[in-house]
Amino acid sequence: MALHHVTHGEGTPVLALHGWTPDHRLMTGCLEPIFANRPGYRRLYPDLPGMGQSPAGEIDSSDGIMAALRDFVDAEIGTEPFIVIGESYGGYLARGLVAERPDQILGLGLICPIGVALEHADRTVPEHVVLESDPAVLAGLTPAQVEDFTGIAVVQTAETLRQYQQDIEPGLDAADTEAMARIRKNWALTIAPESGPVFTRPSLILCGRQDSSTGYADQYPLLPHYPRASFVVLDSAGHNLQIEQPALLAALIDDWLSRIAREPDFPEGLPTEPTSR
Question: pLDDT category, 216, cuts 50, 70, 90?
Answer without folding.
Answer: very high
